[in-house]
Q: What sequence folds into this?
């Protein structure tokens, strides 16, 4: 089953809708929808928008699940000269702005860094990470970066203060109420990927502080 087909069928189950009901609501035949999401027919962007509207998700989420690389205009974004493409995407997904998203993620990471220092937090990572990690595939560099973070966290030679930073990113992946739901492949892992990047930034700052402290001693 392809990613688009999996995403559409998952959304249908969540809404207790049948393919026939989706066809009626969109005005697209069941046969056409089935062939398009299964990759047996060329993806029609207008059809994709209609399906997304009925299922209550951003059209770009279905477009990306179909493996399309689209600019803002082609998927129905309004063009604004004072918005970056990232802010346009976030606005379309119902998120105020890039700084707002980073601020929300940063607050979550701080909370999870404290939780990681408890036995409960560490046990949760040990039990839940392999399960959730095994459930996702095909979201590019994000998985590689996530695995690297987990590998560093589990290494015995990783300094304790760095382990808690690393663990905060893992706990975000496991526990956070996502700004973008994970079932919107692959856009749903955008905030998780940003969290991992922010973990790397926090690690770099922590290491810089250690170096500066060492030089000053």
A:
């Amino acid at each position: 089953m392809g990613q688009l087909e999996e995403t559409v069928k998952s959304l249908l189950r969540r809404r207790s809708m049948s393919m026939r009901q989706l066809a009626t609501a969109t005005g697209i035949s069941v046969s056409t929808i089935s062939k398009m999401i299964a990759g047996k027919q060329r993806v029609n962007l207008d059809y994709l928008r209609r399906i997304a509207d009925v299922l209550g998700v951003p059209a770009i989420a279905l477009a990306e699940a179909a493996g399309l690389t689209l600019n803002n205009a082609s998927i129905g974004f309004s063009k604004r000269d004072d918005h970056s493409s990232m802010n346009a995407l976030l606005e379309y997904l119902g998120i105020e702005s890039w700084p707002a998203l980073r601020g929300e993620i940063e607050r979550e990471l701080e909370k999870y860094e404290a939780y990681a220092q408890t036995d409960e937090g560490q046990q949760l990572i040990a039990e839940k990470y392999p399960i959730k990690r095994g459930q996702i595939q095909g979201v590019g560099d994000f998985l590689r970066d996530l695995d690297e973070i987990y590998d560093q966290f589990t290494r015995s030679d990783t300094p304790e203060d760095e382990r808690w930073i690393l663990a905060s990113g893992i706990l975000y992946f496991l526990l956070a109420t996502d700004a973008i739901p994970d079932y919107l492949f692959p856009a749903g892992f955008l905030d998780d990927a940003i969290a991992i990047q922010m973990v790397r930034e926090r690690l770099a700052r922590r290491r810089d502080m250690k170096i500066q402290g060492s030089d000053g001693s």
Notes: Confidence is low (pLDDT under 50) at residues 70-85, 182-186.
